[in-house]
Amino acid sequence: MDENQAVQYLESLIGQTLRVHATDTRIFVGAFKCTDSARNIILASTYEYRFPSPSAVRDAATDAENQDSAIGAASQNVKVNMTSRFIGLVVVPGQHITKIELEETPQQSRVRETLKKS
């Protein structure tokens, strides 16, 4: 991809929803606004998602064990939700980005699949 194509592709992403994964395992989901030569990314209307802490997982497992023993069942899997918070406008430093994903709506996926078949 030459520089012109790269610029056009980045411009096509402006306003799209991106999932940006960081080195500390956080995930930022927001509308792509811009980037720079240092690969920093600015997202608007952003939510930050974090994996549960080990203590939260332990507590959930203990609670599940207590409930299972009370009803005489044995559970193998415990589900613990990620924590999230709205942070609005954010700059994600390029050096801390591990992965970037374009979030597509079901309609966008159907259009992309239709274009592939053509």
Can you walk through the features of this model?
- By secondary structure, the protein is α+β, with helices and mostly antiparallel strands.
- It has one domain (3-117): SH3 type barrels (Roll), CATH 2.30.30.100.
- Helices cover 35% and strands 35% of the residues.
- It has three helices and five strands.
- The protein has helices at 3-13, 54-71, 106-117; strands spanning 17-22, 27-35, 41-50, 83-92, 97-102.
- Strand 1 (17-22) and strand 2 form a beta hairpin.
- Residues 8-102 form the Sm domain.
- It comes from Aspergillus pseudotamarii.
- Pfam families: LSM.
Task: Describe this protein with a few key phrases.
118 residues; alpha+beta; SH3 type barrels; five-stranded antiparallel β-sheet; 3 helices; 5 strands; 35% helix; snRNP_SmB/NAA38-like; Sm_dom_euk/arc; Sm domain-containing protein
- State the distance separating the first and last CA atoms: 22 Å
Helix content: 25-40%
Q: What is the CATH topology assignment? A: SH3 type barrels
CATH class: Mainly Beta
Shape: elongated
Summed over residues and divided by their number, the pLDDT gives a mean of: 87
- What count of domains describes the coordinates? 1
Task: Please list the strands of the largest sheet in the order they lie side by side.
Answer: 4-3-2-1-5
Q: Please, how many helices?
A: 3
Report on the biggest sheet. 5 strands, antiparallel
Strand element count: 5
Q: Pick out the low-confidence regions.
A: none
Share in β-strands: 25-35%
Named CATH architecture: Roll
- How does the helix and strand content classify structurally? alpha+beta
Radius of gyration: 20 Å
The ordered string of helix (H) and strand (E) elements is HEEEHEEH
Pfam families: LSM
Domain Sm: 8-102
GO cellular component, one term: NatC complex
InterPro entries: LSM_dom_sf, LSMD1_Sm, Sm_dom_euk/arc, snRNP_SmB/NAA38-like
